[in-house]
């Protein structure tokens, strides 16, 4: 009798776990000190750069940007620093080194901020964690640490002021609130609302831009969505500021409440900013509702190129394809001799994981920090104790005696002096002195206004202010008279601009800046002209002159363009007057006037908002 043998089923074997990777302790790793050396080398210049950024209200989000990126990197990564084995990481390091060298040569903290962002992004590109193969997306908020170059934040202010004024006026028309609009001033029956920097959206726009990049980083959105989020943030910020301006007018006309100043204005501003941020978060939810993958992952439906392309574009990595993962886990392992370029690079770089290389990296870091510190010590920085906030600095540089300015002037008169302090006249600035200017050239009377406004944190481009008053800039040049070249103290050219309008009338503007030491500032190239700005930056560097200064201007409106002789005559008058003020400032400071060296100051690439 035979018994039927029990059928033997297929053997089930459990795949052996791969051997654990033995890693060098993080504090002993060469690459830990490599990244620390690169980032630490930027610190001396960044101290100056961030001290300047903090004085601009619309850039004061940068500590939150740095803190958010550090927190996200700490919470998402395995807290280990890897070698720069990715091509993107190597490219960022090369760009960072080039901008660092440029910062040393030109002594500009602005270029060092670019190097810092590149080094940080390169480090994040090779970091990884349980749910992320790369943390490069976390570098997106760091991009907003780099200030807009070539004065484009000024141009942004102008456009936002115009847009905010226009939309607020339309909304007031809908609400049947009587008003009139004069340039960027909304005139109500019993008061005027100046649509200045704080109400034009400049602060909230940069804050909203930061929030948009933070949302993309936190929610692991596709990087190609970041520009769309930035545009939506811009629209929502302007909408929030239109709401703020309108609420000020409504409260004034309907409730007799003053929401234009004090703590009430601050609360209103934060409230509208919170509303804008809520709508931005809501937009993110709408995008993820509409733009979802078809299936469970971007690898599904590979036979349908349209669906596969759509999934590749919108997949943010949160969808898991269990079948695909199981299939890939059973595929044969790639031979080590056939590994990709990235893995080969990683294997080669890991050979540097030795004590001599760690010592060499440490010495390199010390050298880089020393060179940056030496370069930073040659950059003039305005101390925090001077109280700079935004484009203004607290206090006065020079309180001009009326008799000093109005007397002893050859060929012209300054009369009808008006003085305003404490932002009494927002059009002229926080503190201003204005005189009526009059002279006669070839029997033709010329009249205008001479204004001394203070105290600014840096050069204030007055062309933008007059363009904002519906004047069209026709030409802007630098003027220098024979007297200025032989002046008993440092002299620089001054700016002259010609404006036109809808009629034959022409506006003529002479303007310059005088620092607290009584020195003139070389006029930067006009913002917005990229070619000239870049050419001047290549010749003279990108360093910004940021220190307390006064702006002097002479504004003349003529029925038609002044001839060359008249312009030259006023050039001499304006130059003589600015020399007199500079001498008086030096005398009040107890400094000795110095003869001009003829050396041209570096052209400023960073300018404050008008």
Automatic annotation (TrEMBL):
InterPro entries: EpsH-like, Exo/Archaeosortase_dom, Exosortase. Residues 586-610 are annotated as: Disordered. It holds the Pfam family Exosortase_EpsH. The keyword Hydrolase applies. It is a multi-pass membrane protein. Its main location: membrane. Keywords: Cell membrane, Hydrolase, Membrane, Protease, Transmembrane, Transmembrane helix. It is found in: Cell membrane. Residues 589-610 have a biased composition (Polar residues). It comes from the Bacteria. The chain crosses the membrane at residues 33-52, 58-75, 87-104, 110-127, 134-152, 193-216, 223-243, 263-283, 357-377. This is Exosortase U. The gene is xrtU.
